[in-house]
From TrEMBL:
Domain of life of the organism encoding this protein: Eukaryota
Domain PDZ: 81-148
Name listed for the protein in its UniProt record: PDZ domain-containing protein
Similarity comment: family membership: Belongs to the GIPC family.
Any Pfam family matching the protein: GIPC1_GH1
């Protein structure tokens, strides 16, 4: 099937003219098109948000873009190093990645070790742990490295913060109390980006798909310390083709084998998806 000829508007989040991009089918190609529009290297782009220039993790670009969505690209700003001592098992970080080689902080848990370090903010990309570069690692690999660091031993995080416009400097991103910005998209159709294969125009997710994906994303966070709506929706899609938890586990192994999901996690995911299916009729 021919790649859809769709044109999207884009800006750099810290301020730029509006560019127009088209002809991409996955996140890496999207970043390359944005970079070309603004004369920067694709590796300068940390992540993109939809319909907001702010570092707002609720507006993060995942695997789907509404056909009317406005894309804001957040580029590399200052690099900073922080020393952390792991005084308890959990650091209080939730990690996600941009699908193109950068893992970054999506959430910081209130009262956690990381929450007490003012220099660390939501949206910061993790470039190195103890001078070991993690560029190119997936979110689950980075979360595992952080979990496995020994307790009571200091370690260093090298972080890159997104470049900010003047009105954004100095704010530490916490759950927003601001009024929700007007949604630009009609929400009826979306461009679904895929890591393998061409992008496709699809109907927006159903109530069941949205509810189930949210539940699965919550489980990914509690079990693995990551959030990934695209991974969650892939798992929900996989469940539709299966009739039992055993069959679901086998399908997950063939589609997402590199994650090596533990059995108890797969059982919880199946239960959460079944619960969403019943709730949505």
């Amino acid at each position: 099937r021919a790649r859809p000829r769709l044109v999207f508007r884009t800006q750099l989040a810290h301020g730029s003219p509006t560019g127009k991009i088209e002809g991409f089918t996955n996140v890496r190609e999207l970043y390359a098109k944005i970079a070309e529009a603004f004369g920067i290297a694709p590796t300068e782009i940390l992540f993109c948000t939809l319909n907001s220039h702010k570092v707002d993790m609720q507006k993060l670009l995942g695997g789907q873009i509404g056909l009317e969505d406005f894309i804001f690209a957040h580029v590399r700003g200052e690099t900073k190093e922080v020393e952390v001592t792991k005084t308890e098992d959990a650091l209080g970080l939730t990690i996600t990645d941009n699908g193109a080689g950068y893992a970054f902080i999506k959430r910081i848990k209130e009262g956690s070790i990381i929450n007490r370090i003012e220099a660390v903010c939501v949206g910061d990309s993790i470039e190195a742990i103890n001078d070991h570069s993690i560029v190119g690692c997936r979110h689950y690999e980075v979360a595992k490295m952080l979990r496995e660091l020994p307790k009571s031993q200091p370690f260093t995080l090298r972080l890159v913060q997104p470049k900010r416009a003047f009105d954004m400097i100095g704010q530490r991103s916490r759950p927003s109390k601001c009024p929700v910005e007007a949604k630009v998209t009609s929400g009826r159709e979306t461009l679904r980006l895929r890591s393998g294969g061409a992008a496709t125009v699809e109907e927006a997710p159903s109530e069941f798909e949205e509810e189930a994906s949210q539940k699965v994303d919550d489980l990914l966070e509690s079990y693995m310390g990551i959030r990934d709506p695209e991974l969650a929706s892939t798992m929900v899609e996989t469940s539709k083709k299966t009739l039992s938890v055993q069959e679901f586990a086998r399908c997950l192994d063939s589609v997402l084998g590199e994650f090596a999901f533990p059995d108890e996690f797969v059982v919880e995911v199946w239960a959460a998806i079944s619960e969403a299916r019943e709730a949505c009729g």
